[in-house]
UniProtKB/TrEMBL annotation:
Function: Catalyzes the interconversion of L-alanine and D-alanine. May also act on other amino acids.
Native organism taxonomy: Bacteria, Pseudomonadati, Pseudomonadota, Alphaproteobacteria, Acetobacterales
Protein name from the UniProt record: Alanine racemase
Pathway connected to this protein: Amino-acid biosynthesis; D-alanine biosynthesis; D-alanine from L-alanine: step 1/1
Enzyme class: isomerase
Length: 363
């Protein structure tokens, strides 16, 4: 995990959105990278606002960032966790009339107005208030009593496809709906939305994936720095003859003699079985095609192209690295970089390089 790359990515995005404020999304243990190490780096790089999905994640985050950092809980206050939101200074996103009611009674209990984010559903049908909900709020102003709305947000469904007409439509709908809410700063874009251009930046952007090096779309080279490198040990090397079977189901049989290596990473480590027979590992600048099925704890690669004696048992090969990005691995497994990162297991050790201290100098 390259902490300097995370700091670089944060500052790059903040520069890109100029006048808007760049928050940082660290849900799911900072996309599997480790929130305890990642969040302080983001704070030192200038992030003042963080988003998590669950209240528990917010509580965990609270203990590793300074008290002035604002933490927003995307899933909102569950009735049994609303008191903890107050206790730990977590700002919930209110996604429904029910959640508004929960937070409002919490403010009565707290004896003071409580800050909240209101989410509107601008077209994704996942979270947020509908037009009908806004009608209800208009009819009874009491429903919002005790709420201090400090942000109105929505989320784009198709932002990774810049030409998709839903982007513009959702933006229009978001602006229309937020005009019916108490006046507050606006937030629409996550990582991909930032790259749709300034019209989509509004007041606050909420990148997650881009901070961790995932490409925001497929329209050009990825401008972000790679953060994750995944290496695993070679356990065993052998030579096989034409027709010999490799791995479960013997789905690979070479048509000429091959030299192969068994590598200590498998689907239990988050290296998907859907990547069986797809793509390659790398040893320095030599590609090592993945042969046959990925096992739970190991996979097999073809090392025939490695000059004799260079690669030995106990040496490491790259599964994700300078030659194969998180997005490449995802594509080979028919998924997205988000799922690759958040699936990375807890059996191998996470090593953090760089200290991302340089960003403090200018502060
Ligand atoms: C996860 C999430 C984000 C961050 O999305 P990325 O695509 O990772 O940048 C932002 N906003 C909401 C509501 C989210 O759920």
């Amino acid at each position: 995990m390259d902490l300097d790359a995370i700091a670089f990515n944060y500052r790059y995005l903040q520069t890109l959105v100029a006048g808007a404020s760049c928050a940082a999304v660290v849900k799911a243990d900072a996309y599997g990278l480790g929130i305890e190490r990642v969040a302080p780096v983001l704070e030192r790089s200038g992030a003042k606002e963080f988003f998590v999905a669950h209240v528990d994640e917010g509580i965990r985050l609270r203990s590793v960032v300074s008290a002035k950092v604002r933490i927003t809980v995307l899933h909102g206050p569950r009735p049994d966790a609303a008191a903890e939101c107050v206790q730990y200074g977590l700002r919930p996103v209110l996604n429904s009339l029910d959640q508004i009611a929960v937070w409002r009674s919490q403010s009565v209990r707290a004896g003071k107005p409580l800050e909240a984010v209101l989410q509107v559903d601008s077209g994704m049908s996942r979270f947020g208030l509908s037009d009908g909900d806004l009608d209800v709020l208009h009819e009874d102003e009491m429903l919002m009593d005790g709420l201090k709305v400090s942000l109105a947000m929505s989320h784009l469904a198709c932002a990774d496809a810049p030409e998709h007409p839903a982007n513009g439509a959702q933006r229009q709908q978001m602006l229309k709906m937020s005009a019916r809410l108490p006046s507050a700063p606006l937030s629409l874009s996550a990582s991909s939305g930032i790259f749709l251009g300034p019209d989509y930046h509004l007041d606050v952007v909420r990148p997650g994936a881009a901070l961790y090096g995932i490409a925001p779309n497929q329209t050009g080279p990825n401008p972000l720095s790679a953060v994750v490198r995944l290496q695993a040990h070679v356990l065993q090397i052998r030579e096989i003859l034409p027709g010999e079977g490799v791995g479960y189901g013997m789905t690979y049989r070479p048509d000429r003699p091959r030299k192969i290596a068994t590598v200590a990473v498998g689907y239990a480590d988050g290296f998907s079985r859907h990547g069986s027979g797809q793509g390659c590992a790398w040893f320095e600048d030599i590609s090592l095609p993945i042969l046959g099925r990925v096992s739970m704890d190991s996979l097999i690669v073809d090392i025939s192209d490695v000059p004799e004696g260079r690669l030995k048992a106990d040496m490491m090969v790259d599964l994700i690295g300078p030659r194969r990005s998180v997005d490449d691995v995802a594509e080979a497994a028919g998924t997205i970089g988000y799922e690759v990162l958040t699936s990375l297991g807890h059996r191998f050790c996470r090593e953090y390089v760089g200290n991302a201290e340089t960003s403090q100098k200018g502060d």
